[in-house]
Amino acid sequence: MNSLKSILPKKQKTPSFQLSARGHWSTWPAFASGQTVLKSHKPCCAPEERMSSNKQALLTIPKPRYLEQLESYLRKELQYLDLTKRNSQELRLQPYREIFEFFIDNFKTYKPLLSAIKNEYEATLAHQKETIHALEPLKAMVATVSEECSQQILALQEKEKVEINMLKQEKQHLLKFIDNMKEEKSSLQTQVEHLQTSVAEEYARYLNEYGARKLLLAKLNDMHNEQLNMKQHQVQDVKGEDVVKLTLALKIARQDLTNAQVKLNAMIADYGDVVPRREFESLEKKYSDLQQEMETLKKDFDQLRKEYQTLLEIQRETAEERDNFFTELQQAQRSCTPRPNWAKCSEVIPGGADRWGCLAEGKASDQLVDVLLAEIGTRLLKEMDVFPGWTGKRPVLPEFFLSYLQKKYGDTSAMEWSYTLYENMRLCPSNHVMSSFYDILTGKVGEEQYHIQNQLISNLQKELAACDPSNSGSLTSEQFRMAMREAFPLKRQDSIQELIDASRYKLDCTEELIDYKSLFEEDEEGNPEPFVAKIRSQYIREKQEYLRELRNNLGDLIEVNAEDLKAAFCTIDPDIDDQTLDTYVGLAYQVGREQTDQEVVPVDTALERLLAGDVRRVGPAAREESKTDRVEE
What we know:
Elements: H1 2-7, H2 32-35, H3 47-59, H4 65-80, H5 88-106, H6 111-239, H7 243-271, H8 277-336, H9 352-360, H10 365-383, H11 397-426, H12 432-441, H13 447-466, E1 474-475, H14 477-487, H15 493-503, E2 514-515, H16 530-554, E3 559-561, H17 562-572, H18 578-589, E4 600-602, H19 603-612, H20 622-632
Antiparallel strand pairs: 1-2, 3-4
């Protein structure tokens, strides 16, 4: 600014300018066009030539001195500025402001208008700065929101992965459910065919019986007629009745017999194929039930088929995603996993590089690992002199049952037999043998529980036989009670009384002797008498009470270890021995004795396993002992 003032003296604040002929401000260089006289102007010259001559004339007119000084000042100021700073635009604007202020100061006539223009521009710039300053926090907020949105997108992607995995598991579950429904449908179809065959056989048997009954009735009628004829001859011989009268009576009787025979033949022809109404209604009801069940199964099958189509579509989409993921995984494995140097194996393989080259030719990495393990295993076998023996394991009943059916009927027929027997056992819970077999096959109870119950009944039979030296098969109520007490020393008095009441269900109140042998008889379907059924129900009830005491002793525990479970057993049953205690704990944890110390299982799971096995009280409880002592006193 000081340099500019030195260049521009006070007397020359207003730049030099030229006025036009009419007194207006000149607009250099435009004003020169009206004042310049072209010396070489020709009236008849072309317009192009006239324009070129005008341009040459314009270039010959010099700029005003004040304009040159201002331009020179502006160039110097712009050169002095540091445009690398953050506010370089504001610094660049400052010289232009100063130039504009010089114009305002030197041109007094236009100063108010120019000042108003400058102020308006300054106000607009200030407003724009304030707006920019106000938008700075919004810019930071936009960046924060953008980051949060990115995190939410990542979270949604993770959630979608979890949902995809859940859908895959649900798809597998539904596929298993469809297979089960197909198997159940096949089983029901087999049952329907068996029932249809049974109905046809029953119908044929009823027809045969009906025909035999008709033949029997015909023979009876013939025999009856012969007896009547014989009686008539005897009467004729005794009374000496008229032969003509008897002949006429015989003729009428024969006519009646012929009419009866005709009617009988007509009845046989009309109703020979008719079954009894009761059997027809029973078969019709069975057919209606099977028809309704078949319709229900058909609806279920249609629904399952629709769900199956949906699952196939989902499975196709899932398979595509799986293939894409697998492709990405392979690419990632190729790019990330280092390739092993299989040539090193030739140093440890007998035969060296040649033999290893033959073994590894054309094989993938996974196959090469198998080859290497086979070579190592072969070497170890050559070095071993003794092989450890394998201990045999007793198969469980479900595996043995399936193996038996496969050996006897073959694999295909074994499956049909197993499904048929399974459904029959499931539909006959009232039969003890079938229900017990069903519970063992399904894992509801252990096989040892069935044998233990039979052992208890066998011990009771021995005690009853020991109280009957004469082998009469009968005992008094007192003898029966003593034998029960010997066989079941831990039973309460009310349980003993229940068994005695069950043994007398066929006796009158006045009868004293109990036929104990008849108490162990079974009907043709294997169902025992109420006495044996009561023994088995008491066994289940006593085991449930025993486990209920164990649960109460464990308190509010959700999980239990072996030591706590042993302590609880010792608390409720002080007479329990170590071997029985280890057996119970192993049953609860489903492991060997050496592993129970490190196992922790939920209390409910342990109680379910104990309920399925043979768990009984070893010694009497304290309150039961005191009650027994008071009764005996």
